[in-house]
Write a structure and sequence with these properties.
Layout (H helix, E strand, L loop, with lengths): L2 H21 L9 E6 H5 L2 H13 L3 E6 L1 H9 L5 E4 L2 H9 L3 E16 L13 H10 L4 E3 L5 H12 L9 E3 L4 H11 L3 E4 H7 L6 E4 L6 E9 L9 H12 L1 H9 L1 E2 L2 E2 L2 E2 L5
Parallel strand pairs: 1-2, 1-3, 5-6
Antiparallel strand pairs: 3-9, 4-7, 4-8, 4-9, 4-12, 10-11
Helix pairs in contact: 6-7
């Protein structure tokens, strides 16, 4: 083995040790909790804010698997996660009704916004209806970048195209199968429009050549839930740890931490365990 290889192995080992040390301060004998969640909760920085504190207080390490809501729920269906944190009410209801999820609880909310180039060639800034905004993007021959990944954001986008009575098959429609961060980055590079949750937008906006152009439509409301995966289907789940995390998130302490999470002085999520 060469010196270069030795150094590489040492660096990798050191990095892994630091990650473990940073994530787990309490009881490292507790089984990790597998959390399947949306890219918005990870890429916004929220989980990086919450989970180290949870681990410090309870001893449970948390393994985050960030994907779109559809993929996250599928991980729950397959028993590959102990709980899910998602933001697509209709898909979540189907997940629970089919017996894959139990004990769903409201966690927080933010909203979706349509962003695009500041010059706004489709004139979305004059509109207050999200469906009409998408119609204008198509009619004005503009580019729209879709996540195309069956995430909560993509599911919301599809309902808006349906409300607009537009099939997203026009020349400027680009479905990329990526998370919210890469989608925003591509929209910025191409001077295109896209739909984003406000949390990820606030976390990324300083790096983008985009502006919020349409917001406030009640159809853009974006609620998040936490749901345990049903242990009757998969007895080997870490249900005890998952329930501990769920209860911590919806506790007064957890809700305060969610409300305290800010980027550039702006809160990214509104804690809402009461479902108000």
């Amino acid at each position: 083995m060469t010196i270069k290889t030795h150094l590489k192995h040492f660096a990798l080992s050191l990095a892994a040790s630091l990650l473990i040390a940073g994530a787990v301060h309490a009881d490292t004998t507790k089984a990790p909790i597998r959390l399947a969640t949306t890219t918005s909760t990870e890429q916004s920085g929220l989980l990086g804010w919450l989970l180290p504190q949870f681990t410090k207080e309870t001893g449970y390490p948390v393994q985050v698997m960030a994907a779109g809501t559809g993929q996250s729920l599928k991980m729950g269906e397959n028993g590959d996660a102990d709980l899910v944190m998602t933001h697509a009410p209709s898909a979540e209801k189907a997940f629970v009704d089919a017996g894959f999820g139990i004990e769903p609880v409201h966690l927080m909310y933010n909203d979706f916004v349509i962003v695009g180039p500041a010059k706004d060639p489709a004139s979305l800034g004059k509109l207050h209806d999200a469906a009409k905004g998408l119609q204008a993007i198509k009619d004005q021959g503009q580019t729209f970048i879709s996540r195309g990944d069956e995430s909560g954001t993509h599911i919301k986008e599809k309902t808006l195209w349906q409300a607009a009575d537009v099939k997203p098959e026009f020349a400027g429609y680009k479905s990329i199968g990526q998370g919210m961060g890469p989608t925003l980055t591509m929209a910025s590079e191409l001077g295109a429009y896209t739909l984003t949750d406000r949390g990820t937008w606030l976390a990324y906006q300083s790096k983008l050549e985009l502006a919020v152009l349409l917001e406030g439509d009640k159809r853009l409301f974006n609620p998040y839930q936490v749901i345990l995966v049903n242990p009757k289907r998969y007895p080997d789940l870490n249900t005890e740890g998952a329930r501990t995390l769920k209860n911590w998130l919806v506790s007064e302490h957890g809700q305060t931490l969610i409300g305290d999470f800010k980027v550039a002085g702006q809160a990214l999520f509104v804690a809402d365990a009461s479902g108000q």
